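Still learning. Show one?

>
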Amino acid sequence: MNDDGARGGSQAHSRPADRRSQILRHACALFARQGYGATTVRQIADAAQLLSGSLYHHFPSKEAMLLDILEDFFAGALQRHRATLAATDDPIVALRGLIRGSLTVVAEHPEASIVVVAECRRLAQTERFRWLSERTAQTSAMWRSVMADGVRAGVLRPDLRPEVTAHLVQTGVWAMAQWYRGGGRYDPDEASGLLVDLFVRGIAKPGTYRSRPLGPILGNARPATPAVGIGPDDNEAPRARLARLLPEGAGARMRIGYAAGLLFAQQGYTVTTTRQIADLAGVPVGSLAHHIGSKERLLAHMLTGFFQELLAAFDKDAVARPAPTRRLEGLVARTVEALAGHGVASVILLNERGTEEVPQSELYRLLGAVEGVWTRALVDGMRSAEFRTDLDPGFVQRVVRTAISTSSGAYRGLGVHDVAGLYQEIVLGGMGARRA
């Protein structure tokens, strides 16, 4: 009796191609739920009801499974995007098609989409997955061409930098893989229409928001990374990046926090060890417990600190900026500022929100409070006629927060104030040629 028969019963007679597909489905589900680095071959074999040795008859390694998942994903996405661009010369129709195609892929392959968003950028730095950089460059070029066509045709604002705004929209749409499901309130076609309308028209009603030219805001900005995947620029060595970010005179606890944040963002929370944190922070590993207690407690402290700081800033703005338009400007700015200081929080929240070590009840309470502030601001603006009345506040706030949290740190040549101005202008004023 072979290994499949010993563990899987009648499944031993599955055709090899079917068996490979079954294994890939189980592997993809595990990669999405707990991360590629934290998933073992034994876990995949157990999920597929195989012995580990039998699994190797189908795939030589865990890496080979991931390779198949990513190749299929990008092949499907590129095919959809090429078909979209071949079918129309209208930039707005093409933009909607790119968004619809992306959301369709997310809806049809939710787990693979999460794996791509969470793992792609880190993997692209390794030799085996170097081809990912080429695939992401191909998809990014399609989005840039549509934005550039829109500017030339006069249907998108002439002060836009197509490569920057394409990066913003594309990254925000793909990051929706973390929460968008096609079987929810909006199918991909409906959702794509809402997103095009949001980005092109903006939230504010015509005449209620004094739009600013984007040229001075954008300056020499350019995307720092490809627009698929969430995470920091991995080209800079962790030690050099830490030295650049740390305030002068930072104590051991602060060094540990910054070091942990960089490692969590670059290689994932699950596979980061306390020894790695200690080495990067320049402290003895034995003293880590004195400063942070444990890696789990440190992560919980980082995440709750991020949301508490954000909510405190929102509360101050509620008094200083009571008008809805000003209020929304403040929400955008405070979110960008908080991410600049705690950027790893968004990376972990989006990529590893299922980790068991994080206190889920407290995390979701704080996240719910943030969502509530945004939703109330949008509802108030709709009631006061400052915002369009056809908005879906819950959907809009989630899209905008996703876009900000996944790409606000991904531009070179922009300071925190400029990034806030960029998002305020596009969210409220929109990308369309009409200017208030």
Notes: The two ends are 75 Å apart (CA to CA). The chain is about 65% helix and 0% strand. The beta strands are 222-223, 411-412.
